Amino acid sequence: MAQKVLNVFTEPFQLAFNTAYVSASLGIAIYPDDASSIEDLMKSVDQAMYASKQKGGRCFTYFTARMQQVAQNRMQLSNDLRSAIPQNQLYVEYQPIVELKTGRVHKAEALLRWMHPTRGYISPAEFIPIAENTRLIQDIGNWVFQEAFKQVLHWRRVLETNFQVSVNKSPIQFSYEDEKAHGWLEPLSQQPGSGQAIVVEITEGLLLDASSEVIQRLKAFQDMGMQVALDDFGTGYSSLSYLKKFEIDYLKIDRSFVANLSEGSDDLILCEAIIMMAHRLGMKVIAEGIETVQQKTLLIRAGCDYGQGFFFAKSLSPQDLEAYVLLHNQVVMA
Predict the structure, then answer these.
(1) How many CB atoms lie within 10 A of CB 38?
(2) What pLDDT score does 153 carry?
(3) Which homologous superfamily does the CATH classification assign to the domain defined by 89-333?
(4) Strand, helix or coil at 96?
(5) Among candidate residues 306, 258, 311, the one with its CA nearest the CA of residue 285
């Protein structure tokens, strides 16, 4: 029965002149095994539904006792996250983005990190969903942008005048009210021309579900000079028409396509097709998750513009990134 319900939601439907897609995540709890009251039963169902979302959605999950422990842990992390910024527990690292043809580095991606005072390092995969569910993501996202913006202006002075930093902005951040949008726009307005130093990374889901408000906010960033990168391309419900409708500067090939690259592989054929299509549409391509010489070589041969991954460097502190770029670009020039 649960699968039948999910199947209904996978069917596209017409919304005015557009085809719309939705998906569902289901949670299942059984009375009286999982709860003895309606209130507790609803809590159990909600925890099971959250587990379905954690799996990527479009599935159903039965409630288990362990979910209660997970929910309590999530609540504790949520409380701790509220004090993470004022207590300087959050920090930003930067992963170099390498121009594959020349080997030079004049881009990096800003990546949020959390060092918890008692639990140590906590993965973004664990705390970002909590931040999004509690709307803390808006304050945290603004803080990350401001840190990255200050850093890239410094790097434009000491490294390369055209250095860029990519900053992720999730669909949930775009969907919130505009009361805190000035966290990004105000610093840019105070530094004329500085928007060119920032690339905002968005996902396919944002474009597929884009409301007029979201489109206006994205255009406001572009009007300030910011470029736009479409992250994890090919992993969501792609609609190529959106590549024409929106002004996208970079397509980022997801690491899942890069991981198994080999001569004649289906993944290589897909990467070649994405690169050719992007170039014909006037976009540059960045491949994520490069870890081997073979992956790098095949991507260069396919015409990929940029790459990032452990083959080049992990995410680095601002000081280490600066030293890496200075040394790396000197070696390339030599």
Answers:
(1) 9
(2) 96
(3) EAL domain (3.20.20.450)
(4) strand
(5) 306
